[in-house]
Amino acid sequence: MTKPSLPGNGSDFTVPRVRAWRIFTRNRASVIGITIFGLLLLLSVFGSFLSPYPPEKVGVGQRMEPPKSKFLMGTDELGRDILSRVLQGLRLSFLIGLVSAGVSTLIGILFGAVSGFFGRWIDDLLMRITEIFQVIPRFFLTMMLVAFFGPDLINIVLAIALLSWPQLARLVRAEFLALKSRQFVDAARTAGASTGVLIFLEILPNSLGPLIVNSTLLVGQAVLQEAGLSFLGLGDPTQVSLGVMLYQAQDIMRTAWWATAFPGLFIFLAVLSVNLIGDGLNDLFNPRSRER
After folding, report:
1. CA distance 139 to 158
2. Of 116, 121, 120, 277, whose CA–CA distance to 204 is shortest?
3. At 23, which helix (H) or strand (E)?
4. pLDDT by residue (tens digit) across 176-197?
5. CATH fold for domain 18-291
6. Where along the chain do its domains lie?
7. Residue whose C-alpha is closest to residue 172's, from 225, 223, 130
8. pLDDT band for position 287 (50/70/90)?
9. Which residue(s) pair with 75 in the sheet?
10. pLDDT at 24 over 60
11. Given pLDDT bands bounded at 50, 70 and 90, which one contains residue 16?
């Protein structure tokens, strides 16, 4: 019963795969982004097989050896192989980014959908809660939560996720306000569809374009936040992440530039790639782009 229409404009939401790929690849930056992201994802998945040494093994080489054929990214102050640690840290940083963005997206969809669909006092209450989270500096509050509950992996993921949803919630609310009075929703309601069916099977699928773009950007933001927390000493000390590597290399960054340069480079590439993919997805779901 759901009519595939792009929110607010009545355009066809269903784009043939070949045409969708052509629209996406029209933006060369998005092609670069998805290529970089794909390579980084492969490295994070198969990094344990590619690592020449165990990431935490001390003394595999001389202390602070510069990059060379045996150690492509050099070693740190404990003689650990930086390449092996980067591959391990990339996996954890991606995991934190994807899980945090996923949880944040679910919270934002729930708040925005309920607020936009029911309106009235429910809308006022949920939007006031959303505004409270928006006005508080996100990174500062994330630091407080992690410092209070402890810098372990689960607390870091939950702190990032619980503070990243307000913008998405407002976006979902706006889409629901625009769509809930459409004819296909009225037809479903007349046919006896329940509230859950109307929200999750009728309106939400027609709001996915902007949500997907926003959720993609949340991944990059989560990776940056984790790196920032870890750099300030609030990362999980039992795990190897790119941010933890930056924190541990602060004392030697002037004498062993490679100890911070390579983890920082991979953070940069990860965030850059997801943002470029977001630009491409924005073009894909933009009806003006599909008309060209």
Report:
1. 13
2. 116
3. helix 17-26
4. 988 888 888 888 888 888 888 8
5. MetI-like fold (1.10.3720)
6. 18-291
7. 130
8. low
9. 81
10. yes
11. low
Q: Fill in the DSSP letter of residue 10.
A: -
CB atoms under 10 Å from CB of 6, counted, come to 20
Residue whose token pair is 């198969």: 46
Quick one: how many helices (H) and strands (E) in the chain? Answer: 13, 0
pTM, entire model: 0.83
pLDDT on residue 157: 92
Cβ burial 205-244 (10 Å sphere, 16+ → b, else e): ebbebbbebbbbbbbbbbbbbbbbbbbeebbbeebbbbbb
The amino acid present at 182, given as its one-letter code, is R
Tokens 């269903």 identify what position?
14
- Three-class DSSP category at 69: coil
Of 99, 128, 56, which Cα lies nearest the Cα of 225?
A: 99
The pLDDT, as a whole number, for residue 7 is: 40
> Tokens representing 155?
């607390």
Rounded CA-CA distance 198/200 in Å is 6
Q: How far is CA 160 from the centre of its chain?
A: 10
pLDDT of residue 125: 92
The 3-class SS string of 52-92 reads CCCCCCCCCCCCCCCCCCCCCCCECCCCCEHHHHHHHHHHH
